[in-house]
């Protein structure tokens, strides 16, 4: 396993809007990381993003191996089922990995990814924004330590797939196919599970568009509900989470710029590399979220 002495050399896989808005600028400006290259399936996209951040562009299958040879850690901003096979390759090459959520949209592929990482002995972190944005991460730590929660109610609705969506970029095909359950569902689970315990029971019903309402039982005995989707009217879009328990109610605070959250994820990957201690939001946790989302999807079918 490679241990960074100073800056951790990152290769970024993916050059879409999310990579350009969050991953690349966060790594490029990070005081403890160097962006040594960008790989993309489209050479022109890799060249554009690499040029904007004064680094090297890679593409094609050969480019994957070349970038892995140049870096110590691989960051991913790709569709989940494109991401997973490349993560497995990176782990086999001994590279630490910073994944996007969800890890994969099939349990088998998510399990294969987690097992490849464990087998290689490399560190992994799955970037779920609420786990790393300073305000929400601090709140989550405080409420988890307080305990005594009876139930929780979460809502994360976007307008990306709605008829009145006004976005400069077309939604990714995987988001159109899988909907908000898979896109924003991991965000909700990444908070509910630390607070209430692992999910032991899943129920789900469909609403308008891609809206899904989940009812979850947790290992603590508490229950939660979560409404997720990407096709809400713009006026209805937004995210919230409320806890109800022995001390009354606690509401998730608003969070910061995702670039700040991604920098924190880079920091925590570096800590996990140095310490050898798995991060609580690692690929194994990513597998667990995939299992829960797949179960909800099967209920809907």
From TrEMBL:
Transmembrane segments: none annotated. Keywords: Oxidoreductase. The keyword Secreted does not apply. Residues 8-123 form the Gfo/Idh/MocA-like oxidoreductase N-terminal domain. The keyword Oxidoreductase applies. Residues 168-250 form the GFO/IDH/MocA-like oxidoreductase domain. This is Gfo/Idh/MocA family oxidoreductase. It comes from Streptomyces katsurahamanus.
């Amino acid at each position: 396993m490679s241990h960074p002495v100073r800056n951790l050399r990152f290769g970024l896989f993916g050059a879409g809007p999310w990579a350009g808005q969050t991953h690349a600028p966060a790594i490029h400006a990070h005081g403890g990381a160097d962006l040594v290259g960008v790989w993309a399936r489209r050479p022109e996209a890799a060249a554009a993003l690499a040029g904007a951040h004064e680094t090297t562009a890679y593409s094609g299958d050969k480019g994957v191996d070349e970038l892995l040879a140049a870096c110590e850690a691989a960051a991913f901003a790709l569709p989940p089922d494109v991401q997973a096979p490349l993560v497995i390759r990176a782990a086999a090459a001994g590279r630490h990995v910073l994944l996007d959520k969800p890890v994969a949209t099939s349990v088998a592929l998510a399990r294969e990814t987690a097992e490849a990482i464990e087998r290689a002995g490399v560190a992994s972190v799955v970037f779920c924004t609420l786990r790393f944005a300073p305000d929400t991460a601090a709140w989550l730590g405080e409420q988890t330590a307080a305990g005594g929660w009876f139930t929780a109610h979460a809502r994360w609705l976007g307008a990306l797939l709605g008829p009145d969506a006004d976005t400069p970029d077309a939604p990714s095909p995987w988001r159109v196919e899988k909907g908000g359950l898979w896109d924003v569902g991991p965000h909700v689970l990444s908070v509910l599970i630390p607070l209430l315990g692992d999910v032991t029971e899943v129920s789900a019903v469909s609403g308008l568009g891609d809206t899904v309402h989940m009812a979850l039982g947790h290992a603590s005995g508490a229950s939660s509900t979560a409404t997720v989707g990407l096709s809400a009217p713009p006026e209805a879009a937004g995210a919230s989470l409320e806890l109800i328990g022995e001390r009354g109610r606690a509401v998730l605070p608003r969070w910061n710029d995702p670039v700040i959250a991604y920098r924190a994820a880079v920091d925590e990957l570096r800590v996990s590399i140095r310490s050898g201690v798995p991060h609580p939001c690692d690929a194994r946790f990513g597998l667990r979220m995939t299992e829960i989302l797949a179960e909800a999807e099967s209920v809907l079918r």
